[in-house]
Amino acid sequence: MAIESVTCPSCGATGIQIDTTREHSFCSYCGTTVKTKDVLHLDVESVTLEKLKRNAQKSFDVGQYGNARADWRKVIQLDRTDHESYFGIVRCDMATRPDMIFGQDAYAEALAYAPAEIRVQYIRYAEAHNIRARAVQAEIRNSKARAIQEEIARLSSKHKWQLTLAILLTIFTGLFSIPAWKKYSETGKEISKSWEALNAL
Ligand SMILES: [Zn+2]
Question: Domain spanning 3-114 has what CATH number?
Answer without folding.
Answer: 1.25.40.10
